[in-house]
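Subgroup meeting minutes
Present: P.N., E.W., G.H.
Scribe: E.W.

1. P.N. recapped why we're keeping a running log of single-chain structure predictions: easier to compare across weeks, and new members can see raw inputs and outputs side by side.
2. G.H. added today's entry (196 aa).
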Amino acid sequence: MELKPIQQKIYDIRGFKVMFDYDLALFYRTETKRLKEAVRRNIKRFPPDFMFELTKSEYDFLRSHFASLEGGRGKYSKYLPFAFTEQGVAMLSSVLNSETAIIANINIIRAFVAVRQVILNSPINEVKELQYEVRRLKEYVEEIFTDQNDINEDTRQQLELINNSLAELQVKNKSLDRPRNPIGFHAIQETRKDEE
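Output recorded in log:
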């Protein structure tokens, strides 16, 4: 039995990695009803951190969000499914004693371990890499904004100098616009003596 199909049937519910009774029944090659009967006969072996029954809202939510829950066994069950944690699946081996159940149980436990390894190793490294990249990007953006602010400050100072120069020129132009004394010779009108 391959691990990948088993891993695809492991869900995260209430903070636990779990498998549902109808998926386990398929792997054990038994009916969901028979699996649940065996669990109920040995209910003391399944405390809440080993096995719990889904609420109707949890099950409806899962059916609406995971297409894999819509088909196959369990879809039209009038009973809510049991969710088994890794420890609950291990406990099932003491309840279901067929050769098929034992082999399936070993593979299911291996799938849980593989999922846990992926969770423990890969995402942390990826998260660290992403955090590093985000930190570098943030530093780069801050650097650009600092440079932009420096440019803006330089530009603001240059505009201020231009405005001051223009103001000085306007003051000079006002002083140049007032009437000036003419430069050069003044023509004096002479009265002709013969006219007198």
